[in-house]
């Protein structure tokens, strides 16, 4: 993979992350699901995730009614290519959740550890793991640790 | 527009967004205004915006005295070129406002929907619309909605 | 420096900033120190900084025990090259600090003003100055000002 191709593909991969957040914040779950390969693996927390696109779609139910609004800010995106069509991606997220119920906003500070794959000219999530750095008033109690050194 | 040119122009457009935030946080309104074309259209909220650079400059009055400090964090920048000199840009912003008055910080979570144009080798804002995802203790009561699906 | 090289080096410099934040949040101070040149100058605040790598390493002691978690979000990265191996970098940071002690999270909104240098094919920090836009419940009382116009 030459230098120019790497830069182009990196931008396309960043866009994948941005589109995920955009569709999530806009409550458009079917467009979120289209960003994943059929045999995807997703883990938001222990016992909260999915294997395969049909199971993943189920985890997206309720975004519209559980939250009044969400805002997902992605940054610090680091792409490491395995080959021309597969890459590991590490990034961080600030996610604010305003609930339909009267309660304080839930704030999540986390890392996304993604494996992305290019399928028919489009980058998609093959696996996506959310690791939690810390959280405030967040409704998900369990979390995948980031593995901070003690 | 070839691939390399797209990457170069994308960086220049991101820089435009960053410079806007920098000059805003530094309270340098005349340098902010210089980032807009003369016939610009700006909407921060219904009844809060401007058409034309002279009207826009008026909206910038009072940054220095109304706020003690602001911090504008831009991310998730998505550039779609219309042609070599025009592009649509979608991005998100986290904006913290510390008021001169004693009151809680106003926090805005929003989307910027921009049209940018290259004029004399420089990218400038042709139109800029702020859409509000949610806000906390923010002084602007009305807002342009992001259009989240119900 | 041709256009393609600039883009490649910019990405490498952004990665330097991201790796700094990653190792900080992961409490891996020796990997943080490796991102600085031996004769580095660092200023986090007046009377809180270091000259030279050995002094810098001392400032990193206690990350592991003073904080339970931190999350550093870098954005608005602006790279200006001086020549092929030196660049000035301006960026902003949102940094959340959860303390080991029972107290509110310390939040810092700031600018990083960096000078980076390419040494043996790797970009490193030659100087790093943190300027504080504002802070909330943060343990560091003094700060370098951003120089916001009055």
Short note summarizing the structure:
Three copies of one chain form a homotrimer. Chain A is α+β, with helices and mostly antiparallel strands and 150 residues long.
What do these coordinates show?
The structure is a homotrimer of 150-residue chains. By secondary structure, chain A is α+β, with helices and mostly antiparallel strands. Helices cover 26% and strands 49% of the residues of chain A. Chain A contains 4 helices and 6 strands; from the N terminus they run H-H-E-E-H-H-E-E-E-E. Chain A has helices spanning 3-25, 29-33, 53-59, 63-66; strands at residues 36-45, 48-51, 67-83, 86-99, 106-119, 122-136. In chain A, strands 2-1-6-5-4-3 form a 6-stranded mixed beta sheet. Chain A is globular and about 50 Å long. Chains in contact: A-B, A-C, B-C.
Overall spatial form of chain A = globular
Annotation field: number of helices of chain A: 4
SSE series of chain A: HHEEHHEEEE
Q: Quaternary status of these chains?
A: homotrimer
- State the total count of DSSP E strands of chain A: 6
Distance between the termini of chain A: 38 Å
Low-confidence stretches of chain A: none
Radius of gyration of chain A: 15 Å
Indicate the structural class of chain A.
Answer: alpha+beta
What share of the residues of chain A does DSSP label as strand, in percent? over 45%
Q: What is the share of helical residues of chain A?
A: 25-40%
Protein chains sharing the most extensive interface: A-B, 27 and 21 residues
Overall mean pLDDT score of chain A?
Answer: 97
Biggest pleated-sheet summary of chain A: 6 strands, mixed
| Strands ordered across the widest β-sheet of chain A | 2-1-6-5-4-3
């Amino acid at each position: 993979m030459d230098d120019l191709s790497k830069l182009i593909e990196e931008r396309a991969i960043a866009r994948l992350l941005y589109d995920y957040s955009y569709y999530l914040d806009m409550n458009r779950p079917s467009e979120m699901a289209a960003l994943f390969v059929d045999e995807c693996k997703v883990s938001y927390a222990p016992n909260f995730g999915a294997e395969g696109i049909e199971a993943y779609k189920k985890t997206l139910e309720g975004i519209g009614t559980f939250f009044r609004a969400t805002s997902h800010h992605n940054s610090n995106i680091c792409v490491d290519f395995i080959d021309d069509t597969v890459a590991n991606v590490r990034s961080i997220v600030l996610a604010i959740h305003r609930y339909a119920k009267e309660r304080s906003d839930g704030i999540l500070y986390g890392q996304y550890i993604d494996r992305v794959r290019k399928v028919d000219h489009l980058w998609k999530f093959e696996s996506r793991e959310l690791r939690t750095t810390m959280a405030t008033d967040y409704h998900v109690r369990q979390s995948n640790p980031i593995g901070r050194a003690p």
